[in-house]
């Protein structure tokens, strides 16, 4: 019998952005904007943002292997909430299965988002800390996208 560990993890990240919820929501919904902050230059990115729609990001790593993230949008409430389920593969091996909820809350200064991800990490191919770190990096890139958008509407 081989060692095939399963790790379950959950994390929540909160961020505040100095723009209204509809602007932040649009950065998730617009394919061009989402590609700029959610993927890296050179990655393949496709987005069909609607309930039942899919998102796919394919990245070739320095060692030649590929990482493919695929998500299906389960729930979308405009300017309020997004829920999607996702998988991450390295080449053909399934690494992670997750469900992510993003809530958009208006504040006096703009928007507070609360992102909660629950994941099942398979066979040691990905660690929960790696996913949280990657999501943190993406939310920082979202902040850059929103700043540039507000400077050049």
UniProtKB/TrEMBL annotation:
Name of protein: Polyketide cyclase
Entry-linked CDD domains: SRPBCC_CalC_Aha1-like_7
Native source species: Wenjunlia vitaminophila (Streptomyces vitaminophilus)
Pfam family, one: AHSA1
Family under the similarity heading: Belongs to the AHA1 family.
Family annotation (InterPro entries): ASHA1/2-like_C (IPR013538), START-like_dom_sf (IPR023393)
Domain named Activator of Hsp90 ATPase homologue 1/2-like C-terminal: residues: 19-146
């Amino acid at each position: 019998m081989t060692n095939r560990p399963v790790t379950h993890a959950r994390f929540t990240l909160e961020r505040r952005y100095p723009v209204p919820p509809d602007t932040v929501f649009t950065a998730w919904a617009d394919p061009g904007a989402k590609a700029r902050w959610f993927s890296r230059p050179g990655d393949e990115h496709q987005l069909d943002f609607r309930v039942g729609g899919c998102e796919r990001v394919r990245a070739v790593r320095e060692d030649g292997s590929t990482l493919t993230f695929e998500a299906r949008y389960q729930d979308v409430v405009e300017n309020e909430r997004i829920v999607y389920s996702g998988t991450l593969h390295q080449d053909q091996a399934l690494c992670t299965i997750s469900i992510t909820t993003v809530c958009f809350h208006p504040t006096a200064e703009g928007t507070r988002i609360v992102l909660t991800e629950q994941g099942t990490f398979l066979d040691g191919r990905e660690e929960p800390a790696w996913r949280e770190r990657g999501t943190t990096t993406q939310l920082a890139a979202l902040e850059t996208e929103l700043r540039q958008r507000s400077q050049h509407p």
